[in-house]
Give the backbone structure.
Amino acid sequence: MGKITFIGAGSTIFTKNVLGDCMLSPALQDFEFALFDIDPDRLLESGVLLNALKRTLNAGVTIKTYTDRKEALHGAKYVINAIQVGGYKPSTVIDFDIPKKYGLRQTIADTIGIGGLFRALRTIPVMLEIANDIEEVCPDAWLLNYTNPMATLTGAVSRYTNVKMVGLCHSVQVCTSDLLKDLAIPYENIEERIAGINHMAWLLEIKSNGKDLYPEIKKRAKEKQQSKHHDMVRYELMDKFGYYVTESSEHNAEYHPFFIKEKYPELIDRFNIPLDEYPRRCEEQIANWLRTKEELMNNENLTHERSKEYGSRIIEAMETNESFVFGGNVLNTGGLISNLPEKAVVEVPCIANRNGITPAYMGELPEQLAALNRSNINTQLLTIEAAMTKSTEKIYQAAMLDPHTAAELSMDDIISMCDDLIEAHGEMLPEYKMNKKAIKR
């Protein structure tokens, strides 16, 4: 019997989607699904829901819940990670509210920017603890990471442990189809080439029946920009830099210094930028779960259709040796993207089969795209340094090199804001709190 361990299984709907996909794979019918979460109530709910789904699908899997992480990991072949350290409250609220006092507004705040930086600082230590457990009790397991900030977390674990790891995101697999649907272009015999970094990978080529679609895409995008719509930031980036980016406009609005600017408040309306979007989504998700929980938990006919998530297909490919190609986040070892740093995590096509996961060499990105990627990589690499050295000064440097933060605030304000965030996070960042007090001017 194989074993798939899900860390952060209290994310009940996401757990249902990924492990529901696995239940639908004939190759995984004799597997144990080991669920672990630090919240016993949410863990129990996920166990109940997955057992109901197992009965409906007549799946041959075994579902077990664990309150001991190491026990849950023991003997696992695959580990799926979907944790959120600090939760929506208090940590995400802190990530938004304190920068707002300095005039720094955000949309999602989970990748880079001040919110992404502090999310990484509180998550990297936990990720390293999980990785150390994997090294001890299931050293041959593959770790499939869904937790953000994807590039920073994947980089820290890949560089400082021996765990075999790949980061998985939702944006690559829907990038092309959503773009064409939005512009009313038929999705027929599409060839695509995508590479970059997580949330800022680039649609480098897109063809239909061998014909380059970019001229028509850019023409229709320019027309669509004449009226307000949901994807205005990405279309503007494509217009100015030549290529479409994989992740959404609300994300990319805060990865660049061009869009959220106190001096140009009209840009928020012009590009339809949803400030404070992530807290809004969190509130909606919490309300939706409270509204639908009882119905889901008592649904004897609960069912599932296989989602677009990569996880089950990667595991299936490794089990069956039937290769599966996907967009994965891996270290840029050997220069998979040759004009990005080797210590960076890049998002490139990967092949999964019985040999493991093999990333593709993509060569150089167009220089303007590499430059935009490097502006985010700078902060990612310094954030990892801060986490590994417990250096408050590295936190300041990471923040000062963040494109959006640097475009809005002075160095003194950035340092003061970071101090306030360290203080507010309290025991979530105890080492930094002590270090900060020691060097405080």
About this structure: The radius of gyration is 22 Å. The mean pLDDT is 96. The longest strand covers residues 200-208.
